[in-house]
Amino acid sequence: CVLQPTECFLSQPEEKRDSTVKAKRRKKKKISDVLQKSAPKPGVPADLQNLLNQHFGENRSVIEIEELQLSDSCFLPANDLTHSFSSYLKEICPKWAKLRRNHKEKKSVVMLVLCSSALRSLELIKSMTAFKGDCKVLKLFAKHIKIKEQMNMLEKGVFHIGVGTPGRVKALVEQDALYLISTKYMILDWNWRDQKLRRMMDIPEV
């Protein structure tokens, strides 16, 4: 009779301890929670330069690293996050109509837009309607499009804007299917985050 309440009394704190451990486990912060709270900031030249240095720093000599330095004059102002995509492109490229008209080269684009996924590429293509007018836009990503198809299109037609992922663009450049000599603008989709809240630059493969 005396033992029963004691046993009950002993078992209660153990249950409580278990539940608090579970609660603590549930409350553990994820990286996505941290990222969610960090406000997006317009990109600056130093952001890209730091990435280049981090990526190439271990394998290159000091002189080679210096050769990779891009002067600030290579960069246009970033979207201050108040512009739509079309209005931003109009601001940085006021002479687009003339550039588009003069572009006659195959296997190349005047403007190259890089983003982290095929779905994001499609979003950006839709949101640049007011800017692009009647120029030809080429989708440069792997989802549902074979690389041979893209190679044929680049060889046969003249395209003004390419929108796609770094992996597919790199593959096309390496196979001499896409030349960058006519490319005047390269736009990086810097702040957009995927479902895991990663930016394009947070993905190791990129």
Automatic annotation (TrEMBL):
Organism: Sylvietta virens
Protein name, as recorded: CMS1 protein
Residue numbers spanned by region Disordered: 19-42
One cellular-component annotation, GO: 90S preribosome
Gene (UniProt): Cmss1
InterPro entries: Cms1 (IPR032704), P-loop_NTPase (IPR027417)
Domain of life from the UniProt record: Eukaryota
